[in-house]
């Protein structure tokens, strides 16, 4: 998505990405038919924590306290539940501009919600190979579990 967002001001948060383009991008990364798309660009991109990934407790807190978070939760729960009413699986693609912060954090929240519903949830970060200039989730704060696991769990509640 970085290429599609480059020509927009503010990193492309306002860019409308057609579903066909999203499907092509996902197909290039992984052979899976996506059932639900979720745009994580509605959340603020983290500034001071940009050298971490979305598992950092401060990034999770930033998203969880965003005024749009309750709506995002309602929307994704509705869409996943709808899909699961007619299928045993739901492939969900959560995207942002570069796949390091917002989409990673939102995937963590989705996984947490699925577990609370008693559903199994497997997360695969398709942009993991482009997590350059980040801790790649290996630092003491982003690693799961970490010294800040309690703060991470608080963000989910």
- Succession of helices and strands: HHEHHEHH
Percentage of helical residues? 25-40%
DSSP strand (E) fraction?
5-15%
What is the residue-mean pLDDT, rounded to a whole number? 85
Number of helices: 6
Shape: globular
Rg over C-alpha atoms, rounded to the nearest angstrom = 15 Å
Overall domain count: 1
For the sheet with most strands, the description reads: 2 strands, parallel
Cα(first) to Cα(last) distance is 30 Å
pLDDT < 50 runs, ≥5 residues: none
Per DSSP E runs of 2 or more residues, the count of β-strands stands at 2
Secondary structure category: mainly alpha
| Neighbour order of strands in the largest sheet | 1-2
InterPro entries: RapZ_C (IPR053931), Rhodanese-like_dom (IPR001763)
Pfam families: PapZ_C
Protein name: Rhodanese domain-containing protein
Domain Rhodanese: 69-140
Essential attributes:
157 residues, mainly alpha, two-stranded parallel ribbon, 2 strands, 5% strand, globular, Rhodanese domain-containing protein, Rhodanese-like_dom, RapZ_C
Structure explained in plain terms:
The chain has about 160 residues and is mainly alpha-helical. It has one domain (about 1-155). Helix content is about 40%, strand content about 5%. The protein has helices at about 1-5, 20-30, 55-65, 70-85, 100-115, 150-155; strands at about 35-40, 90-95. Helix 3 runs parallel beside helix 6 (about 150-155). The longest helix is centred in the middle third of the chain and has 16 residues, at about 70-85. The chain starts with a helix and ends with a helix. It comes from Alexandrium catenella (Red tide dinoflagellate). It holds the Pfam family PapZ_C. InterPro entries: RapZ_C, Rhodanese-like_dom.
